[in-house]
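Input:
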Amino acid sequence: MLIDLIRANRSYRRFDETHKVTKEQLLDMIEHARLSASAANLQNLKFYLSCDEQTNALVYSQLSWAGYLRYWDGPVPGERPPAYVLVLAPVSTSKYHMLDVGIASQSILLAATEAGLGGCMIASIKKRYHTP
Ligand SMILES: Cc1cc2nc3c(=O)[nH]c(=O)nc-3n(C[C@H](O)[C@H](O)[C@H](O)COP(=O)(O)O)c2cc1C
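Output:
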């Protein structure tokens, strides 16, 4: 039942880093996003997949975890995510791009949950904003 999948899809922030997530598994997740709705059917989003140690470390260094838990700095080595899906939206093409990002991200996380994995949406990233 969909409701069970939604219940199981909590925000996980500590992981078994030795559990490998393959590129094929990530591709299956973004297939769920690809088939999800997008404003005006523009299908503008791009996805960047990371499941190797070096790229994972680079992605991790740009993330902020549960800012409201001030006593916790995020997962320590060994319990960091073994994979990431970066959801990228070109700012200039649709005023609804953030809705598209939300829908795609939920589809990805539900697919991950169905595959027996867990994840967390992270919007708090150390990025430089592009101002059009
Ligand atoms: C749009 C969005 C952005 C989020 N950004 C972050 C984030 O930057 N860091 C983080 O640790 N959690 C982030 N979360 C996870 C929420 O904090 C989490 O969904 C909320 O605490 C509820 O917990 P639950 O999903 O386990 O029910 C984000 C969730 C959403 C929907």
